[in-house]
Amino acid sequence: MTVSTTTLKNSYSGNGSTTAFAYTFPINTTTEITVIERSATGIEVVKAQGTGSTNYGIADNGATGGTVTMVTAPAAGTTLVILRNTTLTQETDYVANDVFPAETHEDALDKLQMQNQELQEELDRSIKISRTNTMTSTEFTVAAADRASKILAFDSSGEISVTQELGTFKGTSATTTTATFVERDIVKSTTAAQLNNIYICVAASAIGDTLTDTDHFALLVDAKSAATSATEAASSASTASGHKDTATTKAAEAVTARDASVVAKDASVAAKDLAVTAKNEAVTAKNAAETALDNFDDTYLGSKSSAPSVDNDGNALATGALYFNSSTGALNVWNGSAWVAIVADTDVKVSVSANDTTPNFLLSKLTAGTGISLSETNNGSNETITITNTGEDPTALAIALG
């Protein structure tokens, strides 16, 4: 026989029904066939020749190959691999002066070629450097105990080495180390200047080395700076809180006008939320408070010697706007078309009058809030409205223009 093919392995996909699988290479004996079933998850099981439920039988046809018949059909998603695994022995013995045994010699050469093919198949599946690349040594001498929990890597010269992806935690050290370190070992500092900093060893270091020695250690986690930043953030929050208090005080000044006070409250809440995050965000709270003050300024126009026709920003008057007439000594409210004087008595009552001949003119312009009663006199002729607080708080009045 001659070995005229380099094929020594056949691979098939299981479907749950097919049991017969051909191999297309010569073998010396059926014991040199290896059958491996690989599951969809990558688990490999070497099958055994025989009649058991997980085994197989072989029908060898000589140089052209043969058939492997599985007792149980490989499931869908599995892969069945049939390969030759020739024994690494030399069984041919020549006797001096005997006739040259050509057939026996050819069988020995065939077996040798089969062994060479199988060795080449192993080499083809191995990791190796290219033919134009160089490496001084592919050996490592690290003992098993020192290789445990490590990985195979390359050192700074590109040579193979046993190392660790992220080294062993060696505990804590203060100014100097109390243990030897190898590359990638990690340690936590306890000295005040580097408190809780995490360092990684970048070159083997002996006992007594300093963690700030950049030839042997590199800073991995700068906890000290983080702690300082946290302290500064707390200080910024305190400063921002002061701005928030200022903003709250300014907002309180707007309590006279309902709309302005709501805006101030929202700005104050926004200032409180923003003040927590950082010192610079306190500026936003300050701006919000100034906006609230400006809105209040647009509603309460302050003291005027005569009735204004626009608000303090030169914009149109808003319904409900107020101003104090320094000439008459009366507080006036803009009802949407005219200024109406508001006069309060000492009995927590407010009288509003208007020289209008329309009956219920004033009552149609006002709506009483909770705890407020309205009464009208001179109906249709210089009407007068008396606003009385009937609630629990004798100092509070709430009215809305109709």
Question: Could you describe the 3D structure shown?
Answer:
- With 402 residues, the protein is an alpha+beta fold.
- Among the domains are: 9-124, no CATH class; 169-221; 302-401, no CATH class.
- Helix content is 25%, strand content 27%.
- It has 6 helices and 23 strands.
- It has helices spanning 102-124, 144-147, 223-252, 258-277, 282-299, 361-365, and strands at residues 9-13, 20-23, 33-38, 44-46, 48-49, 55-60, 66-70, 79-84, 151-154, 160-163, 169-173, 186-189, 198-201, 217-221, 300-304, 322-325, 330-334, 339-344, 349-354, 366-368, 372-377, 383-389, 399-401.
- Strands 15-16-17-18-19-22-21 form a 7-stranded mixed β-sheet. A 4-stranded antiparallel β-sheet has the order 1-8-3-4, with no helix packed on it. A 4-stranded mixed β-sheet has the order 2-7-6-5, with no helix packed on it.
- Helix 3 runs antiparallel to helix 4, helix 3 runs parallel beside helix 5 and helix 4 (258-277) packs antiparallel against helix 5 (282-299).
- The longest helix has 30 residues, at 223-252.
- The protein starts with 8 loop residues before the first strand and ends with a strand.
